[in-house]
Structures are given as C-alpha cells and as structure tokens.
Design brief:
heterotrimer, A alpha+beta (722), B alpha/beta (218), C alpha+beta (80), A: 722 residues, alpha+beta, 8-stranded mixed sheet, 23 helices, 29 strands, 33% helix, globular, B: 218 residues, Rossmann fold, 25% strand
Chain lengths: 722, 218, 80
C-alpha cells in the first residue's frame, strides 16, 4: 500500500493515522487485512468505543447497595426489594433522526427497548428527551413531525407506553436535533437477569430475529462524524425498524430466558453482529467460531463485510447449550421467528469468522474492545464565566405570563403526547400531562420516572448544569414522595477534539458524578453522543438524564396543579444559585453556588413533608410566576404577593436553584417550618388558591386567557402541522 | 365452578395481558386462545378479542388476524350466542371477519390519539347486562384507525335495528354518526374502540370499565 | 409473472390522506381536481400464463388484500 492508498483506506474506514499505527502494533507489526479493516472501523468508532469519553465516564463508577448491574452490561439494573427489579437506560439516535426523522426516532426506540429486554426485563415504560431548533429553522417543522410520529409509531405498536418526556427548542439545535430515548423494564420474583458474557466451550451461537440486509452499513461511524455539506449522501445508511417484529422478539426472548434456556444474550445494535459477538466473547474471555454464510439474509448478494457491519434492526445473538437448542427454536418458531445456529463457543481467545468454510478472519476480540483507544482529549479545569457577585437586571422588559405560556419554551406539549399510547400495559398512574410519570408495580408500590437536564442552565454554566441534571429531577421526585434511586444519562455534546467542548463535557460529567454520589443515585447506565455539530456551530452541551424513584404507595401522590380553593400556597427554598433567563432560554449571569450536601438533606425533608401537601411543583423555567400559572386550572387560580423571599431582581421572573411550591391546608405551614429548622431552608407564604384569576401583586391574568395561551401556543409555532 | 373466559392472542396483540388483568380483577379465570389453534366453544363462558397491533396493523387493521384459524371457532361461538367482546383492534378484527358490520379506517386527523372520552349508551346489549343502568362511561381511547364507516343507508338501518352500542360525546376521530361501539343482531357480539380494561381501578383514572366486564358475572 | 393490485378507497368513504395531499398541493400552486391515496401490492405469482396469473391474483385480492366495504381494486400485469 502506498501513501495515497493508505490515505484513502483510512478515510473510507474513518480511522486516524495514529489509530492505524496502534492497530499494526496489536497485529504484531502487520497491516490489517480483509474484513479486519471493517471490524476496527466499527468497533473503534466513537459511538462503539467511547474513546473520547471513557476516561471520564469512570467518574460514574460508584454503586449503591441496590445496584445489581451497573455499566458494562446492556442496561443497568437496580433492586427495588420485594422481589422487584428494574432495568433502565437511555440512548441517543441524533444523527439518524436528523437525516430521516421517522425511522431515526423509531429505530432509536427499538434499540433502547432491546437493551432492556436483552437483560430479561419486560419493558414497561418509554420516555424521550427531544431537542429541536427554532420552529422557523429549515426543515424543523418536518423534523418535529417525523420524530414524534416515529416514536409514536414504534412505541405504540410494540405495546410499551410512553409516559413522560421533555422537549426543548433552541437555535443551537438548528443543524443537529437531539433524540434521546429511555426505556424501563421490570424483572419480578424468580425471573432471571441474563447477561451478555459468552461462556461454555461447545455452546452454540444462535442468531434470532429479522433477516440481515444492508441497513445502516457504516452507520456507527456515521454517528461519529459531524454533518458537513454532503449530509444528503448519508441517506442510504438509515435503518428501517419494524415494531411488529420487535414485539415478537420481546415475547420470544423473554420466554426463552424465563425458561432458563439461555446462557448469554445481547442485541445487535450499532455495528450489529460485530459488536454483539465481539463484546460477548471479550467479556466472557472466550473465542467464537462464526459461519457468516449461515446468517439469514434478506438479499443474497450481501457479502461478509456487509453482514458484519449491517445494522438491520430487531436481531439478537444468544448463546445456548446444544441440548437446549430444540427448545429454543420451538419458542422462536411459536412466535413466527427464525433461530439460526451460526457457530459455537471455542476456547479462544480468537474469534474465527468463516465464509463458506474459509477462515476470512481470526482475531482476538479484546484487540477491538479492551484495547480500543482511550483518548485524553484536551480540556481546561472549569471556570464559571457567567458568574457574578450580584444580579442586575437593568431595563430588560420581561415577557408577560401569557407570552410565556404561549412561547415555544413554555407552551403545552399536548400535541406531542396525544400521539403516544400512555396507558397500554395497565400500569400507568401518572402520565405525560404531569411533571413526572408514575407506574404501578405488582407490589402496589409506585415507580416514578422523570427526565433531567435543562439546556438553558447548561448554557449558563456547564458545571451548574451538570449538577442540575441530577438535582432538578431528584427534587421533582422528592416533592411527590418518591425516593430517588438511580440515574441513566445520555451525554450529547459537540466535537470532543475542541478543548472548549471537552471542558464542558468534563465539568458536566464531574458535577453529575458528584451530585449522584451525594444523592446516592448512581449512574447505572448511559450513552455518549459526540460530534453533534455542523459547520455553523455545535449544540448546547446537553447531558440529559433519566431518574427513577420509589414510593411506598400509589395513593396520595400530590397533584401538580391547584386542587382546592382556600388552600395555602407556600414557597420552600434552599438558597443556592439565582439567575434570570429571557424567553429564548438565554442567561447572561448567575450568582451563588450549590451545596450538594445541604441539598440532599433538604430533599429528604421535602419528601417527608410531601404527603401533607395536596399539590407540589418545583419552580423551574421563567421563575415563580410561570410556575404558579402552570398550576392554574380552568377554574382555580391564586392570589399571591411578593415577600421578603424576593431579592432585588423581579420577584416573579427570577429563577432559584432550588425552590418548590407546596399547596395544602393551614396545617402545612407548621410541618414545613419544622423541616426548615432541620435543613437550613426557608419557607414563605405566597398566597392562597382561589376560584378566579391569577393575581401576582397587582397584575391579574384571567384564567381563560392563561389557559388558552398555554393550549394554543403550539399551533401558532407549528402552523404547518395539523 | 365458573368456566374460563377465553382471551384471543394474535401475533402483535399487545393489550392481552391488560385484559387478563381485568378479567382476574372481576374474580374470573382468564385463559389464552392462541391464534393458530381452534378451541372447544362449550369449554368457555365468554370471549374477548383484545386491542393492540395484530400483524403490525399491516395491510389493514385486523385484516390478517381475521384469517387466523382461531376465528373459525370464534365464529361458532358467536353463532351459538356466546358473549364475544372486541376492544379496539378486536373491534377491527371482528369487522374484518364480518362478525360485526362496518369498518374502521384512519382517524380524520390522520394521527394516533390518546385521550379520555365520554361515551353515551345507545342500546343495551349482552355486554351491558350487569352495568347497573350506566348510560355514560368515561374510558380512554388510544388508536390511529378508529373512524367507523358504513354505507349511509346501512348505518341508518343499524341504528333502527338497535345495533349501535355506544356513541362519543365529543367525536375524536370522525366516526360516522359518532359511533364508538356496535353489536351484531343477536347482541352477543359487541365491540368498542375505547379500552374498558384501562379503567378498572380509581388509580387508572376511572373504574367505568367494570360496567362492561361485569356482564361476565353470572 | 408479476401482477400489480391497485387498491383505492371507495369514493363514498372520506379519504383523509387524499384530502391532506390535496390541501398541500393547493398551497403550493399545484391544485388538482382530486387526489386519492391508496396502496399498491405487487404479487410475484408462479404462473407463466397471463390469465391464470390474473385469476390467482383476483382470488388473493378478494381473499385478503382489499376490503370491499371501503375499497375498490384493479389488477395489472407488470411489464418488465
């Protein structure tokens, strides 16, 4: 190979010159040959190897006693006690969704579901975190429509309810939308948790599910590349999902696992057969012998390299004992699926890939997994550029409540969640309309689920934003009586080779790690998506999170809106950081800092007091005014006045990390006051719930106008979408 | 001892476990009826065709399920006067099998709709025999193809024949004459688009589904 | 031999997809008198005789491919 040939090959397989030298070193001084190029291309891509993030993800390595399975498996699993365990994980499908929104989002849902049921957990809930650009940005209306239809089309058909979500809009996502999907599954009683390390020499390697085609060939490396001017040409690599097939896969896989027929199993996701087989072998410390010509094909012209790289959906790889093969095949045939034997487990350490009895590759899988590059990308220790000693607001004109309720940031997302089946499965207690989701466990307890990370806070400061990605959802759970248990995350960032981006990444990861430690909510699974950038710029660094919590009972969960006229409206705050944002989600400055230890102690008090409240709502974007407006119903408003809880900045528009509104009868105040003494927090009486308008000091907004603005705002921004 | 209630299962049915849960909540014994197998009608007291996406809703909702072997036995059960309930996709399957009149097509909005609806009873049937006179129910819908259509004159005859079971208070999908559920002439085969199995307990949002399932209690 | 089965909604039934497309075309200055959206099913039938192939396709169409209550269908021989 001459220099030009090498350059072309490196470009085709998206490997750097350094990586090429590393590969030669691993191969004993020789160049990679044949399919080895494709293997390294796929498994050493950012998406599969986490080469730019691994060194920092180690900061998440802390477990609580509840953790049964942490990172390193397909999904994290925590023990809820009483024989109930929950598996959950969040994953991104950003680049494919930008290219083909329906299928990108649909296959994102399909992929995350497989990560859950491959553990032996029956999926019981889906959630999604979406970041779009401005509604007026090119293609954005079609992207919103396509993504929502794709999530709905897949989730509804496969029969898993979508119970909560978060949808953000900002210009930084104009060229790169974020589509993160979260799935949660249940394992009960004696049901096994099945892991992925292959083992048992002589055991069979079995392929189950859909036939393999050319979908997504080179997809993993696409996700590791930014979008340039030739994004159009990336179109052919989009995978097509079939939720009907996935439903059959869920039932058949759970059945073979529950019958004890499976030794190990993994789904074929990014880099399909390659990543699943190599990871299963490497983790198990064994080798495999795989006959690629035995892979069921949709198109007989597909060759070995394409088979290895194909990202055809709805496929799993499992290991079973030869004596159990017939039983395995019977179950799959019952559900209308094929189970094809591809090969067997061997002592190893090499994996042998054969094509019609010719060995086309023999390689130690650890070279591609354990020895994948680990980069220490350049970054600087965090310095808070927007921190000031005192907030000054000057002559800024603030949007009115009505404008906030109608803004794209603040308007109702009902148009979105009306398209999701929120109740299939018969477990949904709180759905998309509420500030968090809750499902009923077989034991009668409630499992809460809420998403975290606020891009506006991240733009203000990546470190505060990283803390917020754990603290805000934790407070939301505590305010409804749920004890937060664990986190999953999806770290969406721009180009890690740019020090400014990497600095934000490290700051956010370290803050998230510290917060999760303090809260005793380990990060048990997650995903990293880098290169969310175009020539025009990168996205807001967005470390989205999903947090689960447990509540002893499904009854008595406080509402998120006013319930009874005459109730007192209280404000309970632990002072920390304060800031003011404008309607576009821009924050120019903030003051103060967070005290993680104090926050954790206060959160416990909030949880203890919550059963006494009829309604609770964590104050969030736009500040207290908007929070109270969101609590209004068609009949109930409130009368509230400024007190000494307000500083020098506008009382109703300043955001404080953190504060929560509690509503209840006159006995509530005493309970909160007692809790304040134990937690260095403060409580004030804001006012009362009334049958009538919302009055903040002297400004009155009638309920009809408020509610109309909230309900119809969406249709004004998305006029093209019916 | 009461005979079991048969719950049909096709490839892609996904509300089957919810219906199982509802039948058990009524103190009855559910049993699966797999799409490939015939069954002995007399061994059961009633049958439910659950909702979901049988065969992915491919070609037409319920079209492929209607050809399944189990539907032969269900036809016999229907003819013999056994109570048969179709829910959502079950309604679509029963129409495709011609055990019920009409057809369900795409919602007028062309979007899937998940929401709570108010239903008005138009005519009592075998499946409201123990509903204690309930004439209004609040149940959730979740469907993309729930618009009921029939040739106009035929639909008028359906009303005249007292075969229209429920109508929507606020039509969510463009169904002709707000039809939400219908029955056959014998009124033993009934179906509706909303999901009664999703309204069995207060914590689900409503217990109104019991008004329908209670018909199985003898 | 390949036979195409063209399935369209009956004119009496509201074709919501067709209506939506009509609206979009109108908004872009490409208005048409009517647009109906249906589906096309292609059957690769193991017959070399055209009338036999059409016969089998008719049987299949009437067995499951179309619902006479709401759709109409037409067969065509797919020329290479």
């Amino acid at each position: 190979m001459n220099a030009d040939e090498l350059k072309a090959k490196l470009a085709k397989y998206r490997l750097s010159a350094d990586e090429f030298e590393q590969i030669r070193g691993l191969l004993g001084g020789r160049d990679p040959v044949g399919v080895e190029w494709a293997l390294f291309s796929a498994l050493w891509s950012e998406h599969c190897s986490y080469k730019s993030s691994r060194v920092h993800l180690k900061k998440f390595a802390f477990k609580s006693p509840r953790v049964l399975q942490a990172m390193g498996e397909n999904a994290g699993v925590i023990d809820l006690g009483q024989g109930e365990k929950v598996a959950f994980k969040m994953e991104s499908h950003n680049h494919p969704s930008y290219i083909e929104p329906y299928q990108g989002a649909a296959t994102g849902v399909g992929g995350i579901l497989r990560d859950i049921f491959t553990m032996g957990a029956r999926p019981i809930a889906l959630a999604n975190y979406l970041c779009f650009g401005e509604p007026t940005a090119p293609r954005m209306q079609a992207l919103v429509d396509g993504v929502v239809r794709g999530i709905a089309g897949y989730g509804n058909c496969v029969g898993v309810p979508t119970v909560t979500g978060q949808t953000e809009f900002h210009s930084s996502y104009n060229g790169n939308i974020l589509v993160n999907a979260l799935a949660l599954g249940l394992v009960c009683g004696d049901e096994p948790i099945v892991t992925s390390p292959a083992r048992g020499v002589g055991n069979l390697v079995v392929y189950v599910g859909a036939k393999t085609g050319r979908d997504g060939v080179h997809g993993a490396s696409m996700a590791s590349e930014s979008f340039g001017a030739d994004s159009e040409s990336k179109r052919p690599t989009v995978q097509i999902g079939d939720p009907f097939f996935e439903k059959l896969l869920i039932e058949s896989c759970l059945e073979v696992m529950q019958k004890g027929l499976v030794v190990a199993i993994q789904d074929m996701g990014a880099a399909g057969l390659t990543s699943s087989s190599f990871e299963m072998a490497a983790k198990g410390g064994v080798g495999l012998k795989i006959h690629l010509d035995k892979v069921p094909l949709r198109d007989s012209s597909v060759g070995p390299e394409e088979i290895l790289l194909s990202e055809s959906q709805e496929r799993m790889l499992l290991i079973c004992e030869p004596a159990k093969l017939k039983a395995v095949q019977d179950v799959f045939h019952h559900w209308g699926l094929d189970a094809a034997v591809l090969g067997e487990v061997v002592k190893g350490p090499e994996i042998e890939l054969l094509w019609k009895n010719d060995v086309i590759c023999k390689i130690d899988p650890k070279m591609l997994t354990d020895h994948a590059p680990m980069y220490e990308r350049e970054y600087k220790p965090w310095s808070a550029k927007h921190k000031v000693s005192a907030l000054s607001v000057g002559a800024t004109k603030f949007p009115s409540l009505v404008e906030q309720m109608a803004s794209v940031q603040g308007t109702s997302r009902e148009w979105i969640y009306r398209q999701y089946d929120q109740r299939v499965g018969g477990k949904t207690v709180r759905d998309c309309e509420d500030s968090l989701a809750a499902v009923r466990l077989p034991s009668g307890r409630a499992l809460g689920l809420v998403l975290g990370c606020r891009p506006a806070v991240m733009r203000m400061d990546a470190q505060v934003g990283g803390y917020d990605a754990a603290f805000y959802p934790a407070l939301e759970l505590n305010a409804k009586g749920f004890e937060p248990l664990a986190l999953t995350d999806c770290l969406n960032f721009g180009n890690p080779e740019k020090p400014a981006i990497m600095s934000e990444f490290v700051a956010a990861v370290e803050a998230l790690a510290e917060a999760s430690r303090e809260l005793d909510t380990p990060v048990i699974s997650g995903n990293v998506s880098f290169y969310n950038e175009t020539s025009d710029g990168n996205v807001t660094s967005t470390p989205s999170t999903g947090m689960v919590g447990l509540r002893e009972s499904i009854s008595g969960i406080p509402a998120s809106h006013f319930v009874k006229a005459g109730d007192e409206v209280l404000l309970w705050r632990l002072p920390g950081v304060s800031y003011v944002s404008d309607m576009r989600g821009e924050v120019k400055a903030f003051t103060g800092e967070l005290d993680p230890e104090a926050l954790e102690r206060w959160f416990d008090e909030v949880r203890a007091v919550s059963p006494k409240a009829r309604a609770t709502r964590v104050a969030g974007k736009f500040g207290l005014g908007y929070t109270l407006a969101r609590m209004c119903t068609d009949e109930l408003g409130a009368k509230a006045v400024k007190g000494d809880w307000a500083g020098a900045t506008p009382a109703w528009s300043t955001e404080h990390l953190y504060e929560v509104v509690l509503v209840g009868d006159s006995s509530l105040m005493a309970a909160v006051k007692a809790a304040c003494e134990r937690s260095h927090s403060h409580v004030w009486r804001l006012g009362t719930v009334e049958k009538g308008p919302l009055t903040l000091d002297n400004e009155t907004t009638d309920l009809k106008t408020l509610r109309q603005a909230y309900k119809t705002g969406w249709s004004k921004h998305f006029a093209q979408l019916a | 001892m009461a005979k079991p209630v048969g719950i049909l299962r096709f490839l892609g049915t996904n509300c089957d476990r919810d219906v199982w849960q509802a039948v058990e909540a009524m103190g009855l014994t559910p049993q699966w009826l797999w799409y490939e197998d015939q069954f002995a009608v007399k061994d059961y007291q009633g049958f439910i065709v659950p909702g979901g996406f049988s065969y992915g809703d491919y070609l037409r909702c319920g079209a492929l399920a209607a050809k399944a072997p189990v539907m032969k036995s269900l036809g016999e059960a229907a003819a013999a006067g056994y109570p048969v309930l179709g829910i959502c996709n079950g309604f679509q399957i029963l129409c495709e099998t011609k055990l019920l009149p009409g057809a369900l097509v795409r919602n007028e909005s062309r979007r899937f709709i998940d929401k709570w609806v108010d239903l008005n009873l138009v005519n009592p049937t075998r499946w409201t025999s123990r509903s204690q006179g309930a004439v209004h129910l609040r149940l959730p819908i979740a469907h993309g193809e729930g618009r009921f259509v029939m040739e106009e004159a035929e639909l008028a005859r359906l009303f005249d024949n007292e075969q229209v079971w429920w109508t929507y208070g606020d039509n969510p999908n463009g169904s002709m004459r707000d039809v939400a559920g219908v029955a056959n002439e014998m009124k033993n085969v009934c179906a509706l688009m909303p999901h009664p199995e999703r309204a069995m307990f207060d914590w689900m949002g409503s217990e109104d589904g019991r008004a329908i399932f209670s018909a199985l209690l003898q | 031999m390949k036979i195409g089965v063209k399935i369209l909604p009956k004119t009496e039934v509201l074709d919501s997809q067709g209506r939506a497309v009509e609206g979009t075309l109108k908004n872009h200055g490409k208005a048409v008198n009517q647009c109906r959206v249906g589906k096309y099913v292609q059957l690769d039938i193991g017959e070399t005789d055209e009338s036999k192939a059409l016969g089998k396709a008719k049987e299949i169409a009437e067995f499951v491919l179309y619902n006479p209550l709401i759709e109409t269908y037409e067969l065509e021989v797919v020329k290479k």
